[in-house]
Amino acid sequence: MIYPDPRRLCGGVSILVALVASLLFCTPIWTQVAGGSFSGTVTDQSGAIVPNAQISIKNLATGVTRTVTTDAAGFYVAPNLLPGNYEVRGSKCSTWPCGWGR
User: Fold this and answer.
1) 18, part of any domain
2) Total-model pTM
3) Which residues contact 32 (CB under 8 A, 6 or more apart)?
4) 28 pairs with which residues across the strands?
5) Under 8 Å CB-to-CB from 63, ≥6 apart: which residues?
6) d(CA 45, CA 101)
7) Which residue range forms the structural domain that includes residue 63?
8) Helix (H), strand (E), coil (C) string for 81-98
9) Residue 27 domain-assigned?
10) How many structural domains comprise the chain?
11) Cα 92 to Cα 42: distance, rounded to the nearest angstrom
12) What is the C-alpha separation between 46 and 43, in angstroms, rounded?
């Protein structure tokens, strides 16, 4: 009669136990952010989109300002803002460099 080698059997069992243990102890991790975001589309008075506009978002409590630029479709997004009251302003310079000649 042929008997299996116990060393090979134990090696296979230990791999199986390690695999099952790793599946049991794996837990999904979800990331969280503390705040929200501002997003929108910038248009002029006639309703035309405004690409490359500078959008300044100022936290009124801390005075911290974040500046983002609209894309070719006039869209902007400012993610991961802390909760609070904000002042949002937009500008589009027609001269280069911005503000030159004013």
Assistant:
1) no
2) 0.58
3) none
4) none
5) none
6) 24
7) 36-90
8) ECCCCEEEEEECCCCCCC
9) no
10) 1
11) 10
12) 8
Is 81:60 a contact under the CB 8 Å cutoff?
Answer: no
- For the cut 80, the answer to whether the pLDDT of residue 13 exceeds it is no
Query: Is there a domain that residue 41 lies in?
Result: yes
Cβ distance 42 to 55 under 8 Å? Answer: yes
Q: Is it the case that residue 99 has pLDDT exceeding 60? A: no
- For tokens 């500078």, the residue is 54
Q: What digits encode the pLDDT tens for the residues 21-66?
A: 666 676 666 666 678 888 999 888 888 888 999 999 999 999 999 9
Greatest alpha-carbon span in the chain: 99
- Distance, in Å, from the CA atom of 63 to the CA atom of 48, rounded to the nearest integer, reads 31
Give the torsion sign (CA, 44, 49, 51, 54): positive
Region of 63 (left: φ > 0; alpha: ψ -120 to 50; beta: rest) is: left
Higher pLDDT, 16 or 63: 63
Query: What CA–CA distance (Å, rounded) separates 35 from 39?
Result: 14
